[in-house]
Automatic annotation (TrEMBL):
Cofactor(s), by name: a divalent metal cation
Species of origin: Dendrobium thyrsiflorum (Pinecone-like raceme dendrobium)
Signal sequence, renumbered to the chain: none
Enzyme Commission number(s) of this protein: 3.1.3.12
Example GO BP: trehalose biosynthetic process
InterPro entries cross-referenced by the UniProt entry: HAD-like_sf (IPR036412), HAD-SF_hydro_IIB (IPR006379), HAD_sf (IPR023214), OTSB-like (IPR044651), Trehalose_PPase (IPR003337)
Keywords of the record: Hydrolase
Catalytic activity: alpha,alpha-trehalose 6-phosphate + H2O = alpha,alpha-trehalose + phosphate
Similarity remark: Belongs to the trehalose phosphatase family.
Pathway annotation from the record: Glycan biosynthesis; trehalose biosynthesis
Descriptive protein name: Trehalose 6-phosphate phosphatase
CDD domains: HAD_TPP
Length: 364
């Protein structure tokens, strides 16, 4: 059966009943558990989870419209009906008191993804600017809580967008981490200047692959290859759908000579990364360690992100049983996050509220 391009076999779809779970996918009634498992396997195989197939279907599924079909909502659902999504994975704005309750006596540590979280998704990756209002909100947050930007982008590039020197920056999906150049008063780790680059030996290979991909994809109109230093992004947001297969084939053919690199997927982007066991989740753990919080029970890490690569960090928090993930999405998705926000403007509202709450609680 095809729903907006995602092939989910009828025998799997047929027996799964509707409404909602905390994970944004259908509930597991006793009768549908087996089929639910089949569905999860199917989604994984098609790259909806953290897999890296780069098939036409998984490329299609990286668009929110197609993700709606993954959650088995009727295709006729309108934008307003999607507000139901927040019922399944509650909006953190509606559950704000749960956060402040959990934060009592604890130190919040803030982790923020960039694209789709602090800046709206746009066609041209070089024009993904964040607003001045968002910058001010992030600056205020960093005044009270240790704050890190964790991005798939190259660290310098994301720094140029954010332009705040009091933050930690983890670029290339966490493969390039650097501490603040202006230390906020509340961070005690200032003696050390942090630099973590676990994939530095891959640099020559990444550059080689970047050049090959540039050459191979130049015949595909709308494609764009971005050198993110320790990883490479191949964008297809502006490529006609009929050419996506060809693009994926070119990428796979280049990668076939590089067994030490792997392919993952983000929002209309294929990502080429070193095969080492390192991701945004590992970066989060590294930073907590660096901040001296490795074994602390009195911290509340909060990670906000919109993409599949952010799931690695959501999962770390869930497995630690500490803090929570917030998924930024207008559409239902499979996720390890606890709460949701619909778009960057809501991220800004949440950050502002958190700062306001902190200011008030410091006075009382
Ligand atoms: O981890 P992130 O900070 O979310 O970075 C992930 C990728 O983000 C960028 O691509 C995405 O945003 C672009 C601008 O809005 C959009 O055109 C593209 O379709 C999205 O995939 C960035 O360009 C990539 O290098 C990052 O890996």
């Amino acid at each position: 059966m095809t729903r907006q391009g995602l092939l989910v076999p009828q025998e799997i779809l047929g027996t799964i009943s509707t409404p909602a779970t905390v994970m944004g996918l259908p509930p597991r009634s006793a009768t549908s558990t087996a089929n639910y498992k089949k569905l999860m396997t199917h989604l994984e195989l098609h790259g909806i989870g953290s897999q890296n197939c780069a098939s036409f279907e998984s490329m299609k599924a990286s668009s929110p419209t197609h993700l709606r079909s993954v959650a088995l909502l009727p295709t006729s659902h309108s934008e307003s009906e999607d507000s139901d999504w927040n019922g399944r994975l509650p909006s953190v704005l509606n559950k704000f008191e749960e956060i402040t309750e959990a934060a009592k006596g604890k130190k919040i540590v803030m982790f923020l993804d960039y694209d789709g979280t602090l800046s709206p998704i746009v066609d041209d990756p070089d024009s993904a600017f964040m607003s001045e209002a968002m910058r001010a909100a992030v600056k205020s947050v960093a005044k009270y809580f240790p704050t890190a930007i964790v991005s798939g982008r190259c660290r310098d590039k994301v720094y140029n967008f954010v332009q705040l020197s009091e933050l930690y920056y983890a670029g290339s999906h966490g493969l390039d981490i650097k501490g603040p150049t202006k230390w906020p008063k509340h961070i005690k780790a200032k003696a050390k200047s942090v630099l973590c680059q676990p994939a530095s030996s891959f640099l020559p290979m990444i550059n080689e692959v970047y050049n090959l991909l540039l050459e191979k994809t130049k015949v595909i109109p709308g494609s764009k290859v971005e050198n993110n230093r320790f990883c490479v992004s191949v964008h297809y947001r502006c490529v006609e759908e009929k050419r996506w297969n060809r693009l994926a084939e070119e990428v796979r053919s280049v990668l076939s000579s590089y067994p030490d690199l792997k392919l993952t997927q983000g929002r209309k982007v294929l990502e080429i990364r070193p095969i080492i066991e390192w991701d945004k989740g590992k970066a989060l753990e590294f930073l907590l360690n660096e901040l001296g919080f490795a074994d602390c029970n009195d911290i509340l890490p909060v990670y906000i992100g919109d993409d599949r690569t952010d799931e690695d960090a959501f999962k770390v928090l869930r497995d630690r049983g500490q803090g929570f993930g917030i998924l930024v999405s207008k559409f239902p998705k499979e996720t390890c996050a606890t709460y949701s926000l619909r778009e960057p403007s809501e991220v800004k509202d949440f950050l502002r509220r958190l700062v306001e709450w902190k200011r008030i609680s410091m006075k009382s």
